[in-house]
Design goal:
heterodimer; A: 619 residues; alpha/beta; Glutaredoxin; Rossmann fold; Ubiquitin-like (UB roll); 5-stranded mixed β-sheet; 24 helices; 38% helix; B: 167 residues; alpha+beta; 2 domains; 4-stranded mixed β-sheet; 8 helices; 45% helix; elongated
């Protein structure tokens, strides 16, 4: 049985050529976000390109830095030089990059930033990138830096040091340290993690289970995916520590089906940890046993509810259960269990390694530590970043993310999933922590910020959220499965121009009824609509009373018209999937409204000749 | 190309082999379903009674479980499955227009197959590749960011019957 010191010595040996390379080192970020834009092809092209160029260089894979908007990313480092990050290096651009390296330059075409606190020629330091300014990368410290498939590289970053420490600590001391740090659950409920672990620790009924909720189902959220793909051992170490602290017998990491790369990498991490004696029987010779396995979901949002997830583990429909009993008494397979989010577990190793005081030195008085956020929607820089809790929403959305595309104005932010509601642009200065969001009728959930600009319609978005809630309802509570359906019907009616003022009262009633649902899915379902009534009543009433959609997004309230004849109209005619654009005997084009599906393709082809006009009310 | 539908006996034999090592009360049902889905690209009906026997439960519980999850299907996929992302980032960038255009062009509604069984439109959940929004997926390839025109051209490239008829 190897001791931790042995593992560490081996790991440091493996890390030296990467930390201070003696020959050119090329790192290619490969994770879901970069794979879909060809990072694997880039990696293969660099490997063969280096060979054919006769270049003596090391090529390795790393995880994702979080700069999704600039993928595929390639980092080049020469001996004695700083690493230089290159953006959008698709396979066809690797040749030029390799030529640059061969010519003795770390900065090839597409050089974006120096991954150190200095410049190189005209390449700025990474800290000067707007996306980077204000980030405190703790959970993400290894993301895009190490090979996620390499146990050695993780250990070289002080990985599993906290596990080694935990093995020699009393369970109570671990939970106390966690409690002292102030860490609360990152999944949305914000319950103190240390106290939660203590419930399981004090439970005497075995077997006891640790469950990691990695079913990041919120559409538009991808922070857990980024972490599991880029640093799977960090999460594993956190889960192992939880198991040791609570003297649990086994752990399940429940990953959603849509994340195959996470499943693959977590399974590899577990396999390597078992082989090194870091998991399984007699961990590092301590006499403590703890088994871990990955469970792959199959596409269900309510399995992200803790009791829904438990049902899913029990070989049946993933329907949330009625509480009590709480999972600490009767959780997975009816046994005492602890369920936490990915980020909650991933923070534990850092707290044990560096102490609660260090961990709590960022954040606000009530909310300590950092939180990862993903940015998507109408934003210039789509990606994943990590900031201290309490950072202003404006800084993250407008400065780091760059705000909406040029020439458009921010309209609203959806802070954490379809059940979290909407916060308008006027409130953008509030800090990213639970209380200010709660005060505004919203919820800072798992960290998926979706940004809306002035081309988007709030009613349209609310239809989506309510449709989603209905589609993913498990079917237990009438207020949820039927309530969301009624809500969708009413909103669709409003969006098609048949809204009535009485509908507003119906919506409010449905919102009140929803509080009777069993789980948070049903209770949170109308949040989006309620926040719409609070912040965007004028826009909603425009739909209801004036039968018009100010953003011209609701298909039932607009129509496409040929405003004047143009030589681009034949192209519009050709693209139309329903042949709705026709030429009459005089050679003049018009749109046959009964055929038009309002897909917008014709306007893309002839933007000045075809326009979107209000179906009702304008005249 | 999709292989011809497997025969009943073939399914029974393969599924029995595949799930032989799995046990009830061991968090194994999802594993079993994934194995079957991986091999056949859907869950053949014949597999349900085998699963019920293996997991000591009723076919209704197994059927209910399969039906509950959106990534498990009870019918074989069409020759061309076009997956349309339903996520909010795509929605905010006119994915609804792309959906209507694809439905018209491919001759099938979302969640259905065209009458000749060659095309199928599937709604998929957001997997966080939002830098490509709005996007569709076809045979594991991500296509985006798409304009509606590009989506229509893509669908025509699959040679749908509607395009053939108009030519």
């Amino acid at each position: 049985m190897a001791s931790y010191a042995d593992l560490k010595a081996r790991a440091e040996q493996a890390w030296t050529p990467i930390a201070s390379p003696q020959k050119p080192l090329i790192k290619v970020g490969v994770a879901t976000c970069s794979r879909v834009v060809g990072a694997e092809e880039t990696l293969a092209a660099i490997k063969t390109g280096v060979k054919t160029a006769g270049l003596d260089a090391d090529v390795m894979m790393v995880g994702c830095l979080g700069l999704c908007y600039a993928e595929p990313l390639v980092e080049v480092q020469l001996p004695e030089g700083p690493p230089v990050l290159h953006q959008r290096v698709t396979a066809d651009k690797t040749g030029a990059l390799i030529q640059a390296v061969k010519a003795g330059s770390a900065a090839g075409p597409g050089a974006m930033a120096v991954m150190a606190d200095r410049t190189l020629g005209d390449v700025p330091p990474v800290g000067s990138l707007p996306f980077w300014q204000g980030q405190v990368r703790r959970l993400m410290a290894n993301c895009g830096v190490i090979d996620p498939l390499s146990l050695d590289q993780y250990i070289a970053q002080r990985g599993y040091e906290a596990l080694d420490k935990a093995l020699r600590m009393d369970g109570e001391a671990i939970t106390k340290e966690l409690l002292a740090s102030g860490l609360w659950g990152r999944g949305g409920a914000a319950f103190p993690t240390g106290r939660k672990w203590d419930f399981l620790r004090t439970s005497q009924r075995h077997p006891k289970f640790i469950v990691c909720n990695a079913d990041e189902g919120d559409p538009g959220a991808f922070v857990n995916r980024n972490l599991m793909e880029s640093d799977p051992h960090l999460l594993l170490e956190g889960v192992l520590i939880a198991g040791i602290a609570t003297r649990a017998d086994a752990g399940f990491i429940y990953i959603r089906d849509e994340y195959p790369v996470c499943v693959e990498r977590m399974e590899k991490a577990i396999e390597d940890a078992y082989a090194a004696g870091l998991a399984g029987k007699d961990i590092l010779g301590s006499g403590i046993d703890f088994e871990v396995e990955v469970v792959r979901g199959a596409g269900s949002y309510v399995c992200g509810d803790e009791t829904g997830l438990l049902s899913s583990l029990e070989d049946r429909r993933g329907m949330p259960k009625i509480k009590p009993p709480y999972p600490a008494e009767a959780g997975a397979l009816g046994q005492p269990s602890n369920i936490n989010n990915v980020e909650s577990y991933a923070n534990a190793p850092m707290i044990l390694r560096n102490g609660a005081d260090w961990w709590a030195n960022v954040g606000t008085e009530k909310n300590k530590g950092t939180k990862m956020f993903s940015l998507s929607g109408q934003i210039q820089r789509v990606g994943v970043l990590e900031v201290p809790l309490g950072t202003s929403t404006r800084q993250v959305v407008m400065d780091m993310g760059g705000g909406p595309p040029q020439g458009r104005a921010l309209k609203a932010v959806q802070p954490g999933g379809p059940l979290s509601g909407i916060v308008p642009a006027s409130e953008i200065d509030i800090p990213l922590e639970p209380e200010p969001y709660r005060e505004r009728g919203s919820l800072m959930g798992g960290g998926g910020l979706v940004i809306l600009d002035d081309t988007n319609c709030i009613v349209d978005l609310c239809i989506y959220f309510e449709w989603f809630a209905e589609d993913e309802s498990c079917g237990r509570c009438t207020t949820c499965f039927a309530g969301t359906r009624r809500m969708v019907e009413i909103l669709r009616r409003i969006a098609s121009g048949r809204g009535r003022e009485a509908d507003i009262e119906l919506i409010k009633l449905l919102g009140q009824l929803a509080t009777n649902a069993n789980c948070f899915h049903g209770q949170g379902a109308p949040t989006a609509v309620i926040t719409m009534l609070r912040w965007f009543e004028d826009e909603l009433m425009d739909h209801v009373v004036r039968k018009r959609c100010p953003a011209r997004a609701c298909a039932g309230l607009i129509r496409y018209e040929v405003l004047h004849q143009s030589d681009r109209l034949p192209m519009a005619e050709a693209i139309c999937p329903t042949n709705a654009i026709v030429k009459d005997a005089q050679g003049l084009y018009h749109i046959e409204q009964e055929k038009c599906v309002k897909c917008d393709a014709c306007r893309e082809q002839a933007p000045y000749a075809i326009s979107v006009v209000d179906e009702f009310g304008a005249e | 190309m999709v292989a011809p539908a497997p025969g009943r006996l073939q399914v029974l034999t393969r599924v029995t082999e595949m799930i032989a090592d799995l046990k009830p009360d061991d968090v194994d049902l999802l594993k079993a379903l994934h194995r079957i889905n991986h091999e056949f690209h859907y869950i053949p009906r014949e597999a349900i009674s085998l699963l019920a026997a293996q997991f000591k439960t009723t076919p209704a519980i197994i059927y209910g479980t399969i039906d509950f999850y959106s990534e498990l299907h009870l019918t074989p996929p069409a020759e061309n499955v076009v997956e349309w992302c339903s996520g909010p980032a795509c929605l905010l960038k006119n994915s609804a227009g792309i959906r209507r255009a694809l439905e018209a062009q491919l001759g099938c509604q979302m969640g259905e197959a065209s009458i000749d069984g060659r095309f199928e439109l599937r709604l998929v959940q957001c997997d966080g590749t939002c830098h490509l929004a709005p996007l569709i997926r076809h045979r594991g390839k991500y296509i985006g960011p798409l304009t509606t025109s590009q989506a229509i051209e893509f669908a025509r490239g699959l040679n749908p019957p509607a395009a053939e008829a108009s030519e």
